[in-house]
Specification:
This protein is α/β, with parallel strands linked by helices. Helix content is 33%, strand content 21%.
Length: 259
């Protein structure tokens, strides 16, 4: 048996009671923290809180050589992820692999950033279109490459009057991308975005998350503090969304009037 468990957004306390029981009943517990990172905790704290030992898997262990699935043939194993357990395509692929191996699977969901941003900002969840990721620039043949995919997604969503959720890159060497860096890169790709409204969110799931709305140009200078960060590019606002951004995200009414 293979049970996928999403353990939430920020720290070891985010897990559901159902998820905790499944962990404590498991023979082996595996985890990956490259698709999502719980910055408010450590593997050691997770092990202490859950009373178990956790084997952390690399990207290669999960995507290329998921040999750990063999344990599920004759044992009850658990696979932990940050956020919700089935948001990442990687985890859906693992579940399909398990099915092809005649391994029974179960999913225990956790809180997801995809819904948390709506609760924190007041933007309505059914008005979000396709999401995108702003990756760190890289160099190829001495030329700096900046992906234009996020801008294309924003343009497409805007045409359909839909908000865009922008995930920010996590890199082993570069670290965690900030809202400030993402806003700067988006403007670099398309200068017309400088005056677009953006909503930056930091440390969702923590006791003191930070939410701030301004133009993308204005967000560059704002101090969002420690990671993780995420960015929203709203479309046209419903009057309740506009009021929520003023009250919950410190948006200046004049900025909203000009958008």
């Amino acid at each position: 048996m293979l049970t996928f468990i999403g353990i939430g957004l920020y720290d070891e306390l985010d897990i559901s009671l159902k998820g905790l029981k499944a962990i404590q009943d498991a023979d082996y517990v595996f985890a990956e923290f490259y698709t999502s990172v719980l910055v408010g905790t450590t593997v050691e704290k997770l092990q202490d809180a859950y009373g178990i030992s956790i084997t952390v898997l690399s990207r290669e262990d999960v995507e290329l050589h998921p040999d750990f699935l063999l344990y599920a043939k004759d044992n009850n194993i658990v696979f932990l992820t940050g956020g919700d357990s089935m948001v990442s395509t990687t985890h859906v692929d693992l579940r399909l692999r398990a099915k092809r191996m005649d391994i029974d699977t179960c999913v225990i969901h956790g809180s997801s950033i995809s819904t948390a941003v709506c609760g924190l900002s007041g933007l309505q969840n059914y008005r979000f279109g396709k999401s995108a990721t702003v990756p760190f620039p890289y160099t190829r043949r001495e030329k700096r490459i900046v992906s234009k995919t996020p801008v294309d997604t924003i343009v497409q969503n805007t045409a359909n009057n839909l908000h865009t959720l922008i995930f920010l890159d996590i890199d082993r060497e570069m670290g965690y991308m900030s809202v400030n860096e993402a806003a700067s890169l988006l403007i670099e790709m398309d200068s017309s975005l400088a005056s677009r409204l953006g909503v930056g969110i930091a440390r969702a799931g923590s006791a003191k998350p930070l939410v701030h709305a301004d133009t993308l140009e204005g967000l560059i200078a704002y101090d969002f503090g420690e990671p993780l960060h995420i960015l929203i590019i709203p479309a046209d606002l419903h009057f309740i969304e506009a009021e929520a951004l003023v009250e919950f995200a410190g948006a200046h009414p004049d900025i909203l009037d000009g958008i």
